[in-house]
TrEMBL record:
Pfam families: Retrotrans_gag. This is Uncharacterized protein LOC120257362 isoform X2. InterPro entries: Retrotrans_gag_dom. It comes from Dioscorea cayennensis subsp. rotundata (White Guinea yam). Residues 111-200 form the Retrotransposon gag domain.
Amino acid sequence: MAEGTRMKDLSAKIDNIFSIMDQREECFLAAMNQRDAKNITAEPAASLHMEVTPAHLLTEETACNQESHVPIKSVRVDFPKFEGDDVLNWIFKAEQYFTYYHIPDPDRLELASIHFDGPVVPWYQMLTKTCMVSTWTELVTALEEDYGPTDYESPEFSLFRITQQESVTTYYHQFTALANRVNGVSSKALIACFIGGLKEDIQRDIIPLKPLTLPKAASLARLYEKKIYCYFTC
């Protein structure tokens, strides 16, 4: 009787243990399922975060790259003053300044006139009183007429009759100053004109070489000028 009771008690304990184990297993499975559900919910958000963040960074990086390509005027350029000398060079420098700082046409006249000095000031005052200039283009025309070379209206004539009187370098500077005021002349014609104005002993050596550019022709002319100089002095 006692033995049967002990067996029943043991069986009950075993059943209780299995019941507890089943409950724990169910709790464990429930916890696992809950964790899996959270992971599934979190994955799209994580994926979205992974997609958004790089795009955001890429946008900032792109913006930085774009900003780095924006031309920054880190070098200050002063507007040239004009006192009445070498007007063509002054006009060229002024237009370079306008381009560099993107000065609009309506502001160019006032900016240029502020930098007049010496006798140019009363000259410009007279122009403003008579309302002869109202734009930068009109000012350029007036400057060229009153302060430009006497043969301004026909620079082609001066270009085709200029000859070397001093060094090749001096002649080249004079030639290019005139050539810059001439339009419609081909590079080939300019080269021929330049060579034609060289001294005969230099010209004779340059012609057979047939230089293809004006700077090349000038470089060869300097080379032969030096060669001739050494021949007579060395």
